[in-house]
Design a protein that fits this description.
Layout: E1 3-10, H1 18-37, E2 44-48, H2 50-59, H3 61-72, E3 76-80, H4 93-111, E4 117-119, H5 130-135, E5 140-144, H6 145-149, E6 162-166, E7 169-176, H7 178-183, H8 189-197, E8 201-207, H9 217-223, H10 226-236, E9 240-242, H11 244-247, H12 264-269, H13 273-286, H14 288-293, H15 307-310, H16 312-327, H17 331-336, H18 353-367, E10 373-377, E11 386-391, E12 394-399, E13 405-411, E14 416-417, H19 431-434, H20 457-461, E15 474-478, H21 484-489, E16 504-506, E17 510-518, E18 522-534, E19 537-546, E20 551-560, E21 569-570, E22 573-574, E23 579-590, E24 595-618, E25 621-638, E26 640-649
Helix pairs in contact: 1-3, 2-3, 8-10, 16-18
């Protein structure tokens, strides 16, 4: 006889788009619980992130009532976690405790149950969090079987639960089966049951969104009746559905100490793109059978925190959150800790502008309670200083490491960061644009890890990559190769070393670099960049000297983010085709924030405006996402120049 410990995890990013939540309810949560309600004898565990629980209660009361009914029937064992679904290891200790206790209280208040189990966001395990969840009354945690394999265990040992300890305080670990994760609901029902029956204790805890929201699953799970048939056949078989708590009546399998990992795929995604491809080659070289039986213990990717190294925009936001946490505690801070925006795997996450907009909205809400300031510190923790200036309703941040550039323009009134762009990076999945994978010819449906994404020719033509981070006030030196097309494609010639190299911050607001221009030889050059800030206005003064006497073009590049590009007016023209001007000003009218960004110069300059779009995967295939607009202010010079720019937001 087999026992099935079946768990569902439900989550939507905090303040996700209403249409995204509506779609999830219609295609997943509502039909899922309508079917589960018909079979209260089917026991399962449920974790739902706190914000989604609140949404269901307020806007989708029928779904919430179904959950309440199943709870009253004894069908559900509730698991807790961070209320706003943070990666617990990535937030301060005191915040972890607040987040867990907040979800505990919600479950106690609405379902009269006290959770003993913890859902670990993205199964990111670091032993440092154990003391904190123990303090919150948690007795057991679900992790992947991979956590055990990466810690030296054999797959055959994982039929049950294990004890572990932190500082002498014991807790329990349940290993989730990857075989079951990949089988349910993707295999035909009978094959799924056979996979369950191969275990004495079959442990599965996975995304509820697999049941209708993942690609191709709605038709398979509901219209073709997979889920109802699965439940009926389970209840008719000798497979028992059990709550996790009941397994504790058995003896444990032993003692375990886990490596700091997540599920295997997450380790892959956290690597640099070239390393992901090399890891895949290595797995192919050792062979599938060897990798799955032996190699998986030793061949692995990185850790979740690597996303802060891989994506500067993620690290910038994360360290912003940590700094705010030292200054104040609020609901906006805890919402800012929602995990989705800090990483990127197969699709979504950091690449979704609305998630980044939400995150900076929470930053702005936190900033409302903080005093004006001028801070100079290495808040990004990378060895270089940032200058952070808050005056009235604006926060301006500048980065010593990358050219003394602007990395945040936060309008607190509209709760919007105009610098919230994303760099066009090469990702491992871009290889499939040139070498598409064939869909597997198997029964059932494929998981997101096996999908052959659709590739549009227009997407293929617009796949460009940046060799520097898309901040603002970037300094380029080029020749006649610079034009609107080479700017869009990032294919112009670069002769300077000022665009992606460190400057030195001189007190209070001046950045300097001793660099060079590289033509037939290196020509020593220096730049002094000074910012003058008056609340909603910024003046930038650049003083440049070189030993190269022939004519070159200087280009000052800005990358700005907006919510609705189709409604922008740029010098009275609609965005977002390629635009060129020769003018002493550039005016951008943004109806969304009701702000006008007004650039002005003493002399007319050539102005180029192009869309900034990334190519990434989605549930539908590859697609372009507009992350911002790139603006270039250009003029010719020889040897030296002094140039001023002013930006006012009104």
């Amino acid at each position: 006889m087999s026992r099935l410990y079946f768990g569902l995890h439900m989550h939507q990013p905090t303040q996700n788009l209403p249409e995204a939540v509506e779609n999830a309810v219609q295609r997943c949560y509502r039909p899922l619980f309508q079917i589960l309600r018909k079979y209260p004898e089917f026991c399962f565990a449920l974790h739902c992130s706190g914000w989604l629980f609140e949404e269901l209660k307020e806007r989708y009361s029928d779904v919430f009532e179904d959950i309440l009914y199943l709870s009253d029937q004894g069908s559900i064992e509730f698991f807790t976690g961070g209320f706003y679904e943070p990666v617990l290891a990535s937030i301060p200790r005191e915040d972890r405790i607040v987040q867990i206790e907040k979800l505990n209280h919600f479950i106690q208040n609405h379902f009269s149950k006290t959770p003993k189990g913890l859902w670990l966001t993205e199964r990111v395990w670091e032993s440092s969090i154990a003391s904190d969840f123990i303090d919150c009354g948690i007795e057991y945690v679900v992790v992947d079987d991979y956590h055990f394999l990466a810690s030296g265990f054999d797959k055959e040992e994982l039929e049950g639960y294990f004890f572990s300890e932190e500082n002498g305080h014991r807790f329990t670990l349940f290993p989730i089966s990857q075989d079951l994760r990949y089988a349910i609901p993707f295999y035909p029902v009978d094959e799924a049951l056979q996979t369950i029956a191969s275990f004495e204790n079959a442990i599965l805890f996975d995304d509820a969104e697999k049941f209708g929201l993942w690609p191709n699953t709605y038709e398979w799970v509901y219209e073709k009746g997979w889920l109802e048939s699965f439940i009926q056949k389970i209840l008719q078989s000798d497979i028992e559905t059990k709550h996790f708590e009941s397994m504790l009546r058995q003896k444990p399998r032993g003692l375990a100490y886990l490596a700091n990992v997540s599920y295997y795929e997450m380790g892959e995604w956290s690597l640099k793109a070239k390393d992901i491809l090399e890891l895949e080659k290595l797995k192919e070289k050792v062979g599938k059978e060897y990798f799955e039986t032996i190699g998986i213990k030793f061949i692995r990717g990185g850790i979740w925190r690597n996303f802060f190294v891989k994506y500067e925009e993620s690290n910038r936001l994360h360290k912003r959150m940590l700094d705010i946490s030292k200054r104040q505690k609020s609901e906006s801070l805890y919402k800012l800790q929602t995990n989705d925006v800090y990483w990127h795997g197969i699709f979504g996450g950091l690449y979704l502008p609305n998630l980044r907009d939400n995150a900076y909205r929470f930053v702005a809400e936190c900033e409302k309670t903080l005093d004006d300031r001028m801070d100079v510190a290495d808040k990004d923790m990378d060895g270089y200083k940032e200058l952070e200036v808050k005056q009235e309703n604006f926060v301006w941040r500048f980065y010593e490491k990358s050219g003394g550039q602007i990395i945040e323009i936060l309008d607190i009134d509209s709760a919007f960061n105009f610098q919230n762009t994303l760099t066009r990076r090469y990702e491992a999945y871009h290889e499939t644009i040139l070498h598409p994978k064939k869909q597997k010819g198997e029964k059932g449906i494929t998981t997101i890890h096996e999908m052959a994404p659709k590739i549009d020719e227009e997407v293929r033509k617009n796949l460009f990559f940046d060799w520097y981070v898309k901040n603002s006030a970037i300094d380029h030196f080029s020749d006649t190769s610079f034009n609107i097309q080479t700017f869009l494609q990032n294919s112009f010639k670069e002769y300077g070393d000022f665009a992606n190299q460190p400057f030195t911050l001189k007190e209070p607001t001046t950045f300097e670099r001793q660099g060079g221009l590289y033509l037939d030889q290196k020509y020593p050059a220096s730049m002094k960049k000074t910012y003058f800030i008056a609340a909603n206005c910024l003046k930038m003064s650049i003083d440049f000297h070189s030993t190269y006497t022939k004519e070159l073009f200087y280009i000052n590049e800005w990358n700005l983010h907006f919510a609705h590009y189709e409604s922008l007016l740029i010098n009275a023209k609609f965005c977002c085709d390629e635009l060129e001007f020769y003018s002493k000003k550039l005016e951008i009218v943004d109806p969304f924030t009701q702000k006008t960004l007004h650039f002005s110069f003493d002399e007319a300059v050539r102005i180029y405006v192009v869309p900034l779009c990334t190519v990434s995967q989605s549930e539908k295939g590859f697609e372009r996402t507009q992350q911002g607009i790139s603006i270039a202010f250009s003029f010719a010079f020889a040897k030296t120049f002094r140039w001023d720019l002013q930006l006012c937001l009104k």
